[in-house]
Write a structure and sequence with these properties.
10-stranded mixed beta sheet; 12 strands
Length: 481
């Protein structure tokens, strides 16, 4: 995703109602975002390694980083770019004398699957994007380090605290497999609709809070030759932002948990799911989609949106940074919580929010000491601020941005939306827990948006994906209370 681009994205963390609290500097209240790999590692979370890269440990060097070593870093170069990682690597070299071999790419599976299969993975990977290697697949094949050793280490900012105690509550959940945190979803992401403040002002539109108001704007836009809704047709992950947000806001947290917990009535038999998919399909039926959007990639669709060819688009908060080069200077990008269907259990201000962009340390990394220290430094205020400056987004570090950092309009609007939401946040986890199920639901959405299937068939296919996943014994290890 962020995504990332986030076909990610990616995709990120967690639906606890006390999740969002942000730094005073950002105007929020602080709290005191495929191919199956062959199994080639000895066991998930194994901290052993046949490398000799470790040096002496100390309070300031808990993992024994050795001066003069090398660190192999692979970053998904999507919505957030990779300049932030280059800045981190320069900082790491200055402190530890460790030189980074940097790769920025969107071809995560293509470049890394052969390396994992050969037992020669990188040391740090931002495993995100449309070609992400599914975290659950890597975990089941014993390819990932248990990150507890890093999370329980002293925080760089306050050595009296563990690293995990400096993070926004709940943001580690999306990186869990089998009860272990094996992926660090680093970026604090919000998902929903986006629009141009300039276009709204010119047309005299006001922010829609109900689905009927949303459809009315789409209708008005169509009459003026403008698409109502654009979506990234080749990556149906994005339209599922609308469908899944509507399910959660209409049916409440119980409707969301039913899907994550693989219940037999998660979709078929769920009034919220039926209402949500029918609402999105109404946009298709009434011709409110931006022409051609079903055949476009994420950046193609988003660029046409930047050109005012559509009013709304679904995405996560990586969108602004991903579109820097194509967004007009006076576009005034704005974030919008998903409008409400009648009888919704959650308020309009409720948003899908949590952690995205999973970073992993492969179990067979050659320089495990440096990899662990790199992740520990990622969770410092200094590196969190670096990310905010370079990537125009927030991280999971509490109060993680220095005072005075200026944010772009879209990012600032997500900060304001997060403040307004307060405790009314939610986050689906099935996308991280069950990649095969997630893909099956996305495929059904692709058929729906192209009018090749109707809502009833979408519900049937989504439920079939849930039922299939529920038969996997490993699924019993994941449960939301």
């Amino acid at each position: 995703m962020g995504s990332t681009s986030a076909e990610n994205s990616n995709k990120g963390s967690v639906g606890r109602r006390d999740l969002i609290k942000r730094s005073a500097a950002l105007g929020l209240i602080s709290v005191p975002t495929m191919s199956v790999l062959s199994a080639c590692a000895s066991g998930g979370g194994d901290d052993s390694s046949d490398n000799d890269t470790g040096g002496k440990t100390s309070k300031s060097n808990p993992f024994g980083v050795k001066d003069g070593g090398k660190l192999d870093v692979v970053i998904f170069k999507g919505g957030y770019g990779d300049d932030y990682a280059k800045a981190w690597e320069a900082s790491f070299k200055k402190k530890w004398g460790v030189t980074s071999v940097h790769t920025g790419t969107q071809e995560i599976t293509g470049k890394l699957q052969p390396r994992f299969n050969a037992g020669n993975p990188p040391d740090i990977v931002d495993d995100s994007g449309a070609q992400q290697i599914p975290i659950d697949v890597l975990y089941k094949n014993g390819q990932l380090l248990d990150l507890a050793v890093v999370l329980d280490a002293p925080s760089i900012d306050d050595p009296a605290k563990k690293v995990r105690d400096t993070l926004i509550p709940g943001t580690l959940d999306a990186g869990m497999q089998g009860g272990k945190v094996v992926a660090l979803n680093y970026i604090y992401t919000v998902w929903g609709l986006w629009y141009s403040g300039k276009l709204f002002k010119e047309k005299g539109w006001t922010e829609p809070k109900t689905w009927d108001e949303f459809l009315a704007i789409c209708k008005d836009a169509k009459s003026q030759g403008i698409g109502g809704l654009a979506h990234q047709g080749k990556y149906p992950y994005y339209i599922n932002v609308a469908i899944m947000d509507l399910i959660a806001k209409t049916g409440g947290l119980e409707a969301m948990k039913a899907i994550d917990n693989l219940e037999p009535n998660a979709f078929v038999g769920s009034d919220a799911a039926k209402a949500a998919v029918e609402a999105v399909y109404e946009v298709v039926e009434k011709g409110y989609l931006m022409p051609g959007t079903n055949g476009l990639t994420h950046t193609e669709s988003q660029t046409r949106w930047n050109q005012y060819k559509a009013v709304f688009i679904t995405s996560g908060s990586w969108l602004e940074n991903e579109q820097l080069k194509t967004t007009p200077s006076d576009f005034d990008m704005k974030f919008l919580p998903m409008p409400l269907l009648p009888g919704s259990k959650l308020p309009f201000q409720a948003i899908r929010a949590g952690s995205g962009e999973p970073f992993i340390i492969p179990a067979k990394a050659k320089n495990l000491p440096a990899a662990k220290e790199f992740v520990r430094m990622m969770l410092s205020k200094e590196w969190s601020t670096t990310f905010a400056k370079e990537a125009n987004s927030l991280t999971i570090v509490k109060d993680g941005v220095d005072t005075g950092v200026q944010l772009r309009p879209g990012t600032q609007s997500t900060v304001e939306a997060s403040k307004a939401a307060g405790d009314d946040t939610f986050r689906f986890l099935y996308t991280e827990w069950y990649s095969e199920m997630g893909t099956a639901i996305e495929n059904a959405s692709n058929e729906l948006m192209a009018k090749r299937i109707q809502p009833a068939e979408w519900l049937k296919r989504a439920q079939a994906a849930v039922d299939k996943q529920a038969k996997d014994p490993e699924s019993k290890k994941n449960h939301r209370d």
